[in-house]
Amino acid sequence: MPRRAPTLVALAALAAGVATAPPAAAAGPDPGKQPVAIGTGGAVATVDPDATRIGLEVLAAGGNAADAAVAAAAALGVSEPYSAGVGGGGFFVYHDAATGTVSSIDGRETAPQAMGPDAFLDEAGAPLPFQEAVQSGLSVGVPGTPLTWERALAEFGTRSLAEVLEGPTRLAEDGFVVDETFRQQTAENEEKFRRFDASAQLWLPGGALPEVGSVFRNPDLVRTYEVLAAEGAGAFATGQLADDVVRTAQDPPEAPGAAAVRGGLLAAADLAAYDAPLREPTRIDYRGLEVYGMAPPSSGGSTVGEALNVLERFPLGSLSDVDALHVYLEASAVAFADRNAYVGDPATTEVPLAELLSDGFAAERACAVDPARAAARPVPAGTPDGAYDPCPAPVGATVGGGSEGPSTTHLTVADAEGNIASYTLTIEQTGGSGITVPGRGFILNNELTDFTFAAADPAQPEPNLPGPGKRPRSSMAPTIVLDDGAPVLALGSPGGATIITTVLQTLVGRLDRNADLGEAIAAPRASSRNGATTDAEPAFLEAYGADLTARGHAFAEVAEIGAATGVEFLPGGLLLAAAEPQRRGGGSAGVVRDVLVEGGAG
Predict the structure, then answer these.
(1) How many domains does the chain divide into?
(2) What does the entry give for GO biological process (predicted)?
């Protein structure tokens, strides 16, 4: 197995002897927007400095990775409310150091029992316009985040929900400082928010965009967190809070003079029946490492895993940058072809997960990757049936991928004992459905628009159509990597379907291309999802666009892709937390005891 190169700055810290720096009296300095931190006692990486700080405070006070992850997630519900919150859902992957096991919680939202496969079709049988579906009660699934938090603490944590909500509740009460990213996201959603009275009142204080540098407080969310602290996640199953969610989804409260929107199908019984089950995570072995991810209804674990299995057939460590990126893009397209054709809610769709992640299927699918030339898009799906030939002709279906919003958020936490939480949570689009529950301080998700509205080819099975109680397919890909059971790193990203390629490209950069984790996260990205064009950031096109275009790739320029966070275990008991240096305004990485700051190194 090619050994991962230790981070150079970590080596400098070790050489300076700062690994034995004395413990800090508190959680350490405010991590602010620093993209990389190295130290001991635990590590947190999120998109937001307040969320990272609150997670670190929990670790410094003796909480473990699960406790800190829930606290940081609840803080993001305050300071990043357009990407996450109690009105949404997500996937929680956890490494328990004491048992050596990796587990996962499926907190994905579910469709109402009244939802059928034609839910997003109009009276003529045509798919609804996407934004019309988003900005409606029809898009709202049963929120899964509150029960995910409660289950994560019960299964893995050492603190109660009431205890870990103390810091986030104070943040909602005291407020956070508005930055340019929050103002910009509000501006992008202003028209949507003005359609709904409670949204306009909360997110447009005084009828205007919040000013950069002002303090944004959310007293309604304070009261919601107080209800959760007192009653637990059951408050979202029955009672006044649950009734408020149902009433708002069924009949969204439009602002005076605003056009009417479609009501939803969510019922009280749907909330009462919701569960966030434990699921067996996906696992593949990649160059001697164990890579764990989220199983369906997320397609993250299966698609990242299949792509890695394909890439293992190529010597990525010795290829040129262009050769390695070409193979990465081709493997991504192949894996997305299979994801689109076969992955859906396992309760209603027979997902051939073991075969999708098998070495035999990967060897067969690797035949679709020409090291010198891009394949015509879309690449047909393979046939994961257990009967594999060296290089068969492709005979599988070509199925569309549906629509997913570019929002969501991801946090990564590790503690001193080696417990790891890799947690991706979302309300789907930036700003979700746009519908704020009156008096409650949070936005309802539009997660059900992740369903495929109509099959692209009625003759081909479509695993992701709406259905009663069904969970829409997701691309969230919280990932944990171990080496013979010992923790190596964990990561994840927001970004809709680009989550998968962001995680995959970062893993390739770190494990194959000898980049530091911070460098792998910061590297310019491209996302090949088996469409006619590959999304690519300007810096990627500047560096590699001409060479890859000459090989048959077609690119569409996008401003940015993903916003990853990660934690890596370094030699000498050190932890490295890494976040984006620029994307989404930059992320926030922190450690409980920062050896570089306290030891005077670097």
Answers:
(1) 1
(2) glutathione biosynthetic process; glutathione catabolic process
248 is an active site residue: no
Phi, psi torsion values for 71, nearest 5 degrees = -60, -45
Whether 46 maps to a domain, the answer reads yes
DSSP code, position 461: -
Catalytic choice (40, 408, 430, 436): 408
Binding residues for L-glutamate: 108, 450, 474-475, 496
Separation between Cα atoms, residue 2 and residue 282, nearest integer Å: 23
What letter does residue 84 receive in the DSSP assignment? -
- Domain of residue 187, CATH code: 3.60.20.40
- pTM, whole model, 2 decimals? 0.93
Give yes or no for a contact between 475 and 300, defined as CB atoms under 8 angstroms apart: yes
* pLDDT-derived band at 15, boundaries 50, 70, 90: very low
Q: What gap in Å lies between CA 151 and CA 108, rounded to an integer? A: 13
pLDDT digits (tens, 9 = 90+) for 126-179: 999 999 999 999 999 999 999 999 999 999 999 999 999 999 999 999 999 999
- Whether 354 is covered by a domain: the verdict is no
Q: Do the domain assignments include residue 239?
A: yes
Q: Tell me which residue range forms the domain holding 71.
A: 36-278+402-594
| Cβ(334)–Cβ(379) below 8 Å | yes
pLDDT for the residue 396: 59
Asked if residue 74 belongs to a domain, the reply is: yes
Place of tokens 């708002």: 248
Q: Point out the annotated binding site.
A: 108, 450, 474-475, 496
* Residue 377 structure tokens: 């898009």
Q: Prior bond to 205 cis, omega within 30?
A: no
